[in-house]
């Protein structure tokens, strides 16, 4: 064999890249690594490592034909592709591996185009003692059956909720209810309209949507636990994580679902401390079947809350309950959260959502208009979709504005109306923050008169505000260090470098400082919407 495994795989990737969208390539093929290449009995076996079973199922289901052709082209008719799957933690007994170990899982022979993964028997050629990947949830015999608290993997047995007394025991009390007085239904805090039916799938969210769908069929029983979605503002994270809860509740796959933002969780926790009810708070969250926590980055710097969440997380995970999280960035980039918690966020599956392409934007607008019972011409939909690009919330906002104007003025929604009504939005669909606006947001948050950050003063709190404003100016604007310095009373570029380093250092070492930076960042993002 004259070529190395990496060379062979790079050649394969080149062919695959030319045959699928950029987004799909990034999602499904970029994370894969070649880990072996051997020639044996007239066959050339290339082994590729997959990050999870989910990848295996997805590749087999969607890219089998392409992979077969590619391997034959690169390695000839004797070419075979083998998968090496990294086993997630807590695999069912039988797999016998911990996190990070792997198993050899031969891909199906190229001659057979396999039926969908859900209809296939387990591959017969697995090495002894290796458990085949679980079929997708919809194919499992338990899928679709009413949820039972004691049916899950490792779940503690609980009384069946038939008799009133049992029902009371089965309902975790609301943290702020009077315990023992009456059973209280857990309010899931879900928005009914955040469903899978209303969620438009595109390259931008395919992995996240597919994983969310699997989880909703069998919460706690897939290897995607926890499941974390991350991505920018208004890209559908909340919609998707709530869709899991809505679907699981509607189909009897979970009895108690709780959606909570990390800020709300923190507020409830603080309140429970103030009212001496930490135990109730903790019991309540430990009894939830699907816990959905939005915007986990706001746990940053809140050490006590993190600790409480850590214990709740562990308990739920051990009981086989489902945990679903969202954040504005991947776990490794979240500041101010303890490593032990961050590493848990990455235990299951993390999937990102990206800004939608124009086709997906058109589909979202069409769907939204149909749901609202409004007729909007194709040319108007296309006009809005091509001009409003940055996020889906803005896209929906544009449509709502059009609908409102048309209703108030009894006009039809046509291109003229769209141009007229949306001209300000379209001109500056994402206002760029200037150095001055950053100074203003930072000073407003820290209660410092704005002109002081440009003045000569070295008072401690002014220096802090100045450094934070410099830090964000460097991060957000495209200005050079020199220009940034000039906007801060004519300081030179080395002062800006020093400010950025100093802020970075303090983020690392000072939790309350870190919390302040996170809060300022959120304010700045609001100004960009
Ligand atoms: N793929 C989609 N199909 C249909 N509607 C969508 C889609 N993605 C987002 N939306 C809609 O866009 C709006 C914003 O979505 P959502 O609140 O879920 O975004 P987010 O990523 O959680 O934003 P933030 O980070 O600001 O909380 C919602 O009304 C949601 O229903």
From TrEMBL:
Stored Gene3D superfamilies: 1.10.1750.10, 1.10.8.60, 3.30.300.180, P-loop containing nucleotide triphosphate hydrolases
Composition bias, Low complexity: 152-171
Subcellular location: Cytoplasm
Presence of the UniProt keyword Cell inner membrane in the record: no
Main localisation: cytoplasm
Region (Domain IV, binds dsDNA): 407-529
Protein name in the entry: Chromosomal replication initiator protein DnaA
Native source species: Rubrivirga litoralis
